[in-house]
Amino acid sequence: MELLHTGKVRDVYADGRDILLVASDRVSIYDVVLPTPIPDKGKILTQLSLWWFEQLSDVVPHHVISSTDVPAEWAGRAVRCERLDMVMVECIARGYLAGSGLKEYERDGAVSGVALPPGLIEGSDLPEPIFTPTTKVPPGQGHDEFMTFAEVEAKVGAAVAAELRRITLEVYRRGSRVAAGQGIVIADTKIELGFAGDGSLKLGDELLTPDSSRFWAADEWKPGAAQRYLDKQFLRDWSASLTDWDRTAPGPEIPDEVVEATRNRYIEVYERLTGSRWR
Ligand SMILES: Nc1ncnc2c1ncn2[C@@H]1O[C@H](COP(=O)(O)OP(=O)(O)OP(=O)(O)O)[C@@H](O)[C@H]1O
Ligand SMILES: [Mg+2]
User: Is the pTM of this model over 0.70?
Assistant: First the structure.
């Protein structure tokens, strides 16, 4: 099998006409991959993504071919997928203001050209979910930048742009509704779409995972400061307590109890969202 790509967390292989997306147990904070893995993290996120693809299959067809027809050593963490011609736009939906969206709003009063009311603060919920696409920049070649809808239209055509927006917002709305029932706020999420061999648009990559979305504890949501971010919170809190790490590579080794607490949190999110137990 040919290794096409190594991301911070996942490896992508070509297998004939298919691709295999393999999620490792690597964890990154502040874009630095730490030397200590979180056992089962790759499997948990892979299974969560598969569950969401199934839940949302009436919104948009997806790239999954099989979660079981994969090499034995990657069982549970690999997914065999249809190789898509990826649209070079990262499709982001936001229902709350955080991260780069917040920065953009503070500067321009708008995100991706979508004007927002004045007076919003970190963590504010938006009047309605908005589509805030960015460029998709290959790793190491700079950062993703916000695109206006007109720029997306210029890049992919008006009809495809409209589909990207419709699908992204619908995925966000549906995902948020499910998560809200389990006490989880999805502040924002990123999806990736691509063209299948027959020319149709399909959902690729991963779906509504803690790596592609911001998940907050709903009962602690309080605009005005950084929110308690599920999953990686233990890691972030612990790393904030380190006086000798400047948030650049190489990252520090993670102590056992922090590994365990982080793993438990990933499991909790999986179990709350899917309603099934993690074996
Ligand atoms: N069905 C598919 N067909 C072709 N490419 C796909 C498909 N699904 C996902 N991809 C691509 O596979 C790659 C997955 O890489 P991954 O997310 O692990 O790393 P990355 O996004 O390049 O970097 P990182 O996530 O570390 O910032 C992405 O470039 C994504 O667009
Ligand atoms: Mg990625």
Answer: yes
DSSP 90-115: EEEEEEE--HHHHHHHHHHSEETTEE
Distance 205 CA to ligand 1 centre (A): 6
Distance, CA 117 to ligand 2 centroid (Å)? 31
Using CA atoms, how far apart are residues 167 and 170, in angstroms rounded to an integer?
5
3-state secondary structure at position 277: coil
pLDDT per position as a tens digit, 67-126: 999 999 999 999 999 999 999 999 999 999 999 999 999 999 999 999 999 999 999 999
Neighbours of 156 (CB within 10 A): 18
Angle separating helix axes 158-180 and 149-156, nearest 10 degrees:
120
CB atoms inside a 10 Å sphere around CB 49: 23
